[in-house]
Design brief:
The protein is α/β, with parallel strands linked by helices. It is built from 20 helices and 13 strands. A hairpin with a 2-residue loop joins strand 7 and strand 8.
Length: 607
């Protein structure tokens, strides 16, 4: 469905052309002065130099063309709004110095557009990325380590972006890309060997089947790595043992590889449990290990084609360009001891994705401090011809989650909070608030609603910020039911559901209700805001950020609540008018629920 902006632009562009000017000057935007008009066009300002005229002269000539439609509109005011031509678009057109065109739409035209919008499953959103394949690399947890607050942003931003891009028509493959290889795995294996030397994994003469049930718990596994890491920094012999264990895992030693698989299975089960709670899912659960066998062949090809060369014993690809304003170091493929690095694994992963998925683009979500790493990797991938010239490669760097002191968020004892504990804390806080407000909910219902609302609070607090910016983790602020918060959106949705439910219980039919021309300023404001859903979603898809969609949903909630407080909805005596209100509420609910679904959370029936 064509956006209302495009429909208005078609009329304004036609007026420019009829006045003798370039139709391209008819670009229209939502007014930044809603007290003066609803939309505006600044094309006369841009055309002044080209045509050698004062912008106000051009604006007045175009306005004269558009005002003809205002007169025509008055003559057919009693007609069917949906059947009117573009002569019914504008209620008011003004040329204002130094050359602005101020535009106000007729109530009939807006109502007709809204009526069509209500029938559209996508609420006016287009699918500009139809047929486009995208790999979205987000999550990035490390095996044998718990998810902590530092993993929150990648999961939340990535999940929302995946949903938004799919809504925009793209075929998106979400890949968790785990850290499941290298020295960390060797450290875990070594510490387990020191603690449990009798396990069959460490018996080279063992020929039986390895245990079907895990010999360790998630809790033990999560305690093992930091202990092993600390020991390796103080004990060279221990570190050498860990490096040997790493080699055994990577070379396919039967016992160590079996242990690694068990570490993977146990750790992944715990990761999935937390991600499920966050309503985050992945299409691929791949990691560095999945491309281990690819690396030797890729490196040999880079050497053969002279994409890479030796420098101080290491194998590197020069990625600096003449236009660089700062130094871009070479991308190291192999260290002087022959060991691969993260860049090597990332390049092998790109090669693997191009072979098996053949995406049009790859998007990576990580901490913004990895920006230089991805500049090097992307340039190396292009130089080594691992991707096609038209393949898009993008890195979205996000900021840190900070406490009120402006420093990375910590627990009271100074540690990094586990993500699961953080979710428990927010849910408990929310459960107390909900129990105070609605005593009709059972204990189980309260707990369920608290989980939904706390998830909305967490996700919206993150997504309403620009990804690159750090944000303050303030549970008291973002669990509030007022202001720019997730709970406020849910409260608005629950309020609408309650009204629609009562209307139905009173014998009314929501499905048969039809949009009517606005009868008040608050109603028209709400209708106009509803026209912007499609643009908000598409802008978020283009900018790879849910920030704009959050801003739209907050504005829509505000405009609905203003309308609600100024309008007697269920007590309206005129049944046709009441039905018009109900149809407007139904569309508002549809856009809000679709929007929060794209953000990655949902609303309860009551709260």
């Amino acid at each position: 469905m064509e956006t209302i902006i495009k429909q208005i632009e078609a009329n304004v562009a036609k007026a420019f052309e009829e006045a003798g000017y370039d139709a391209a000057l008819g670009t229209v935007t939502v007014s930044n002065r809603p007290d003066l008009c609803e939309f505006q066009c600044n094309g006369a300002m841009a055309g002044a130099k080209k045509y050698g005229k004062a912008p106000i002269v051009i604006a007045e000539e175009v306005a004269a063309r558009l005002k003809e439609s205002v007169t025509a509109d008055a003559a057919q005011a009693d007609g069917d709004a949906a059947a009117k031509t573009d002569s019914a678009v504008f209620a008011k057109v003004e040329a204002v110095k130094p050359g602005f065109l101020n535009l106000t739409l007729t109530e009939d035209y807006v109502a007709a557009y809204i009526a069509a919008l209500a029938k559209d499953k996508r609420c006016g959103a287009e699918e500009p990325y139809q047929g486009k394949k995208i790999v979205l690399d987000y999550g990035g947890p490390n095996i044998a380590k718990p998810l902590h607050v530092g993993h929150l942003r990648s999961a939340v931003i990535g999940e929302s972006l995946k949903r938004i891009l799919r809504f925009a028509g793209a075929e998106v493959t979400g890949d968790i890309h785990m850290g499941d290889w290298g020295l960390p795995m060797g450290l875990v294996a070594t510490e387990l060997r020191h603690r449990h030397p009798d396990w069959p994994y460490f018996d080279e003469s063992f020929t039986g089947s390895y245990p079907k049930e895990s010999l360790f718990t998630v809790a033990e596994l999560e305690e093992v790595y930091p202990a092993a890491s600390a020991k390796s920094k103080e004990d060279e012999a221990y570190k050498a043992e860990a490096m040997e264990a790493t080699r055994k895992i990577q070379d396919g030693d039967k016992g160590y590889r079996a242990l690694w698989r068990e570490i993977m299975r146990t750790s992944k089960a715990d990761l999935k449990k937390v991600y499920d709670r966050l309503h985050v899912s992945f299409d691929l659960w791949k990691g560095e290990a999945d491309v281990h066998e690819i690396i030797p062949g890729m490196v040999e090809e880079m050497k053969r084609r002279e994409y890479a060369h030796e420098s101080d014993g290491a194998l590197v690809i020069d990625v600096a360009e003449e236009t660089d304003k700062k130094e871009i170091p070479p991308c190291i493929i192999l260290k002087s001891d022959g060991a691969a690095l993260y860049a090597t694994t990332d390049l092998a992963t790109i090669e693997d994705r191009m072979k098996n998925i053949r995406p049009d683009g790859m998007i990576y979500l990580t901490d913004k401090r990895q920006e230089m790493h991805f500049v090097q990797v992307f340039r190396a991938a292009r130089k080594a011809r691992l991707v096609l010239p038209e393949t898009e490669l993008a890195h979205i760097g996000f900021g840190t989650v900070n406490g009120k002191d402006g420093k990375p968020y910590k627990t009271r004892d100074g540690g990094v909070p586990r993500l699961e504990n953080l979710l428990d804390e927010i849910a408990a806080r929310m459960q107390e608030r909900i129990a105070e407000g609605d005593r009709d909910l059972s204990e189980a219902e309260t707990a369920n609603v608290a989980e939904q609302v706390s998830l909305a609070a967490l996700k919206y607090a993150d997504l309403s910020n620009q990804p690159a910016k750090d944000y303050v983790f303030d549970p008291e602020k973002f669990t509030a039911f007022e202001g720019d918060t997730g709970p406020y959106l849910l409260y608005t949705i629950v309020r609408i559901k309650s009204i629609l439910r009562k209307y139905g219980e009173g014998g009314g039919s929501v499905k048969e209700a039809r949009i009517r021309p606005a009868g008040s300023a608050a109603e028209k404001t709400l209708q106009l805001t509803l026209t912007g859903f499609g643009e908000a979603v598409m802008r978020s898809a283009k900018e790879l950020s849910a920030h704009g969609l959050c801003a739209f949903l907050y504005a829509l909630s505000n405009d609905f609540n203003s309308f609600y407080h100024e309008t007697k909805i269920l007590t309206e005596e005129d049944e046709a008018v009441k039905a018009g209100y109900i149809a407007l509420l139904a569309l508002t609910l549809k856009e809000l629920e679709t929007g929060i679904g794209l953000l990655g959370f949902e609303a309860p029936e009551r709260m």
